[in-house]
Write a structure and sequence with these properties.
With 251 residues, the protein is mainly alpha-helical. It has one domain (6-243). The chain is 73% helix and 3% strand. It has 7 helices and 2 strands. Strands 1-2 form a two-stranded antiparallel sheet. The longest helix has 42 residues, at 164-205. It starts with 5 loop residues before the first helix and ends in an 8-residue tail after the last helix. The relative contact order is 0.13.
């Protein structure tokens, strides 16, 4: 007759609970997976499926009756939310680049109703954010999330302390938002700056020219024309940002 002791029961429960907390925290914070269009029961089912797959790979599970069980649970949730937050920063960089470009184009006031955020969103920023969402699935970034959370149990096992390198990696991911946004928006911003300088020289050469009547449609048309040639560079930078997701190190 098969007998299971209380110690074994606590060990089996810990082998499932602690990985589940990390995975469900990632699923609830990762882009696209946390979208309101994804039902909650599907997110929980995905987290449970990944938990059962991951539990068999853990070298030494932590029992549930450990004196530091609460600390370990909070640590696992923090790791999961950090992984999802780091991936979400790529979308934040794309939206920041779009906001900067829209402001230079004169579309800083252009907003439309966004049901996802229950409010309004900037036009050009939403365009770049949608581009990032398309690349997210086109380059299998959703599979990178699955591979990354499973690999995180090898680099950061359950119960292991979080040292300075891990927190430094997350802080470095935050600084990448501005670098990535600048790299995406720089070609369009430089082109619009040259156009504004040319309009300034034109207004000095022909003072009778109504700069406001000519400048706004000119910068708008030039900005739209510059968006197309700048998209391949934006796609390349966003793709590399997805592949450089923290704690993965590439495909």
């Amino acid at each position: 007759m098969l007998q299971i002791t209380s110690a074994q029961l606590h060990l089996y429960a810990g082998a499932l609970l602690f990985p589940f907390l990390r995975i469900i925290a990632l699923v609830l914070s990762a882009p696209m997976l946390s979208h309101t269009a994804v039902p909650m029961n599907m997110r929980v089912a995905l987290a449970l499926l990944l938990t059962f797959v991951t539990a068999s790979l853990l070298p030494s599970p932590v029992p549930l009756d450990s004196p530091r069980a609460v600390e370990f649970a909070l640590r696992e949730m923090a790791i999961g939310f950090s992984l999802g937050f780091a991936m979400r920063l790529v979308f934040a960089a794309a939206e920041l680049a779009g906001d900067a470009v829209g402001l230079q184009m004169g579309l800083g006031f252009a907003f439309f109703v966004d049901p996802q955020h229950a409010g309004t969103s900037p036009l050009v920023g939403t365009f770049y954010s949608t581009l990032a969402a398309l690349l997210f699935f086109a380059f299998d970034a959703h599979l990178l999330i699955v591979a990354g959370v499973i690999q995180s149990f090898a680099t950061l096992p359950v119960g292991s302390p979080l040292g300075a390198p891990e927190w430094h990696a997350l802080a470095g991911a935050g600084t990448e938002v501005f670098r990535l946004a600048l790299g995406i928006a720089l070609p369009v911003i430089v082109g619009l700056m040259i156009a504004n300088i040319a309009l300034g020289v034109l207004s000095r050469a022909a003072p009778q020219l109504n700069l406001f009547a000519v400048g706004f449609p000119a910068t708008l048309i030039i900005g739209v024309l510059l968006l197309g040639p700048s998209l391949p560079g934006a796609v390349d930078k966003l793709t590399r940002a997805f592949e450089a997701w923290p704690w993965i190190g590439g495909r």
